[in-house]
Amino acid sequence: MADAILWIDDDPCVLDGYTRRCHNQFNIECAVSAEQGFQMIAERGPFAVVVSDLKMPGMNGIQFLSKVREQAPDTVRILLTGHADLQAAIEAINHGQIFRFLTKPCTGYAWATALHAGLRQHHLITAEQELLEQTLSGSIKVLCEMLSLANPTAFGRSSRIARYAEGIVTHLQLSESWEIITAAMLSQIGCVILPEKVLEKVYQGKSLTSEEAHLLNQHPLVGYDLLVEIPRMARVAEIIKYQDQYYDGVSRSGDHRQGTDIPIGARILRVALDFDWFQSTGKTKTEAFNLLQQRKDWYDPDVVTALKAAFYHDIKYEMRTVVITDLRPGMVLSEDVRSDTNALLALHGQVVTKSMMMRLQSFTRWIGIRQPFTVLIEMDQEDSDSSFGGVRVRNIA
Questions:
Q1: pTM of the prediction?
Q2: What are 285-321's pLDDT values in tens digits?
Q3: For the chain, how many structural domains are there in total?
């Protein structure tokens, strides 16, 4: 609740007194026990500020505010006590990271000052987090856009990898889903050092020169170096760094970390990357799964199982032949989109986004695009848009 304050005291008379004195200044909710306080936080929280009395039956104020910190770390916590106990103050600061420590009787000026300060502190915390999240989200979006422009082949692959990673993360119910999915989206960012033709050779299974192979082997480290200094991206960068690490410790980088010592996100990327590569060489999903399962020492078996559970019974699509003006967000390109001069503009497997639509529309006006081309549309997202009335449709599994 924005700017709401939760006040916990086992003496209803004390609560009544405080709320009468400050109801015109603050939005205060009251609870007479720690148990009721937790219930109110669950139902109406999180609160901007929580004030708790020290001496309460069952759970004292220090214990209560420590639990509040675990459940709502952005909530500002204030402890109120009738005992000017130095040891209580030390425990409150060390264990509950208390913002203020007030003693009874507390003057109206003192508690009003403390509550105003608590609300200001909460505003600072949330504003800083919002700014950081917006900046980080914008940075990730810009990096993805740069990759899509600089190397559509790499971007197309990262789009497919992100879908596989999201399915695996959901099946495994991992708490670090944000880092893993972001790492999947940016897994190919280091490929900016590779010419487009080199990546096309890789995905077509063609042999590379020694120099091309060396550049390819370096792309996870390049991705790591690009991201590690960005705030909150250190764990994402580490996942990208170890994406080529196999479960038995074999890697192109020479690092011998193996098994569960490899970050779980990197283990997921390794499976998703090879699953995608097998399909790019013409294997069906079933054949790709079988290859993953046959190479038992190469992959985390739990991740392979999760991939199979998430994608073995994949959703059905309809294939449609469209032109640029038919594109809608959420469609999946089933073939490469190329300019009239055969330049690759978007790779098969990419999910259509609004920014992609705008970019392709611009290319259509300036350099021309080969049209029509085919896309996949989820059957459960079928619409009756008349703009598709004349296109050719066929069902695929």
A1: 0.56
A2: 878 888 898 888 899 999 998 998 887 655 567 788 9
A3: 3
